[in-house]
Amino acid sequence: MYKNSRKITISLSVWTTLAILFIIPAVALWGISFDTKIYDNFDNPIGYRLSYLFFAVLMTIPFVMFWIKMIQFVLVSRMNDILSADEDGFVPVAELAKSMGMPEAKMIKKTNNAIRKGYLINCNYSMSQKALLLSDKIGAPQTQRPGMPENRPFVGVSCPCCAASLKIRANTQGTCPFCGRLIIGPPVKN
After folding, report:
1. What is the residue range of 81's domain?
2. pLDDT single digits (tens) 157-171
3. Is this structure's pTM higher than 0.90?
4. C-beta neighbour count of 165 within 10 angstroms
């Protein structure tokens, strides 16, 4: 499983609740802001109309965020299905992008975003290999082939520069995807 169902459920619950709470006041404010009869009694009708529009836009933001999150979660679910079907734990981004029907650069951006936010788990993006490494499948003796990393477990580390929580293979080095700082994986403790 590469989809963090718990985190997705919590996030979706929060945005659904906010969208429901704010949609009725937002609709009312949008209606008020475009009703010209209301402003006949005011000294400064433009100022009142702009204030109603401002609050209408603010109240609409949770509803828009709900739909943005829904699109993200559908993408993560599709990626989960593709990654679960993989057998060797090495998924080239070009192959993933082709399966998802989007350009490779956009796929890299969306994948890194989903990993960073914690919606995709048990996988890392390797910049040098332009592939996703699935931590629960890669490294098994039958899947080793030239150019693939050795059978070393992933260990959790924090970036010394930006404090990002990362996973890296033991006794290897790489760069932080957020700030570019060199990260060295500690040896495995026996």
Report:
1. 5-151
2. 888 888 888 888 777
3. no
4. 10
